[in-house]
């Protein structure tokens, strides 16, 4: 196992943190809106699928 040097570790962490490219405010807002729209669309889709399967099960139970 290699020797652990905390000072070197923190220097490397700082060096890597300087390489991070943060998104602009516009990119963040655009991404948030896209995520919200996709979330609503998927919620409506799964509501429809769940309702359809619920009706099928209810219909099958009336046959018994």
Automatic annotation (TrEMBL):
Q: TM spans, by residue? A: 29-49
Q: Which Pfam families match?
A: SecE (PF00584)
Localization in the cell: Cell membrane; Membrane
Provide the membrane topology annotation. Single-pass membrane protein
Name the domain of life. Answer: Bacteria
| Family matches, as InterPro entries | SecE_bac, SecE_sf, Translocase_SecE/Sec61-g
- Which keywords appear in this protein's UniProt record, sorted alphabetically? Cell membrane, Membrane, Protein transport, Translocation, Transmembrane, Transmembrane helix, Transport
Q: Which PANTHER family match?
A: PROTEIN TRANSLOCASE SUBUNIT SECE
Identify its protein family: Belongs to the SecE/SEC61-gamma family.
What does this gene product do? Essential subunit of the Sec protein translocation channel SecYEG. Clamps together the 2 halves of SecY. May contact the channel plug during translocation.
Subunit organization: Component of the Sec protein translocase complex. Heterotrimer consisting of SecY, SecE and SecG subunits. The heterotrimers can form oligomers, although 1 heterotrimer is thought to be able to translocate proteins. Interacts with the ribosome. Interacts with SecDF, and other proteins may be involved. Interacts with SecA.
What name does this protein carry?
A: Protein translocase subunit SecE
| Biological source species | Novosphingobium bradum
């Amino acid at each position: 196992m290699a020797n652990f040097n905390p000072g070197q570790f923190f220097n490397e962490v700082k060096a890597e943190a300087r390489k991070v490219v943060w998104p602009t405010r516009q990119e963040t807002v655009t991404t948030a809106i896209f995520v919200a729209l996709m979330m609503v669309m998927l919620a409506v889709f799964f509501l429809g699928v769940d309702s359809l399967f619920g009706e099928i099960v209810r219909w099958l139970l009336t046959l018994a």
